[in-house]
Predict the 3D structure of the following.
Amino acid sequence: MFPIPENTDFLLADAEKENLYLSLIEQINKDFNLANEGIDFPLSISPNELKIQLHEKIYRMIQYKFAEYLNLLYIIDVPENEIKQLDGSDLVILAEQVAFLILKREWQKVWFRNHYK
């Protein structure tokens, strides 16, 4: 059964513990590129730096490229009901929450692919 992470730090720790952190980075890069949002996190990026850079990228997309942001959520397949539950009054907090939802969905893809191959 897929272990649902409570927050970004637990998610990244689980990915490292299961030796799937590099696969997670590759999946993020792949899906962002599918959405024509060129992002290329190096495989050597630390979990904390990944968290910060992803948050900044989402923040900029919400602010300046909203249509592309929605397309990205669609391509990654972030559940719409989870997005609708977020409070959008503070853009910084919203971007952080969306970054977690993106990481959670990407982690889910990597975890399932690894456990059911």
Notes: The helical segments are 8-17, 21-34, 47-64, 66-76, 80-84, 91-115. The chain has one domain: 8-112. Residues 41 and 49 are 10 Å apart (CA to CA). Residues 91-115 form the longest helix (25 residues).
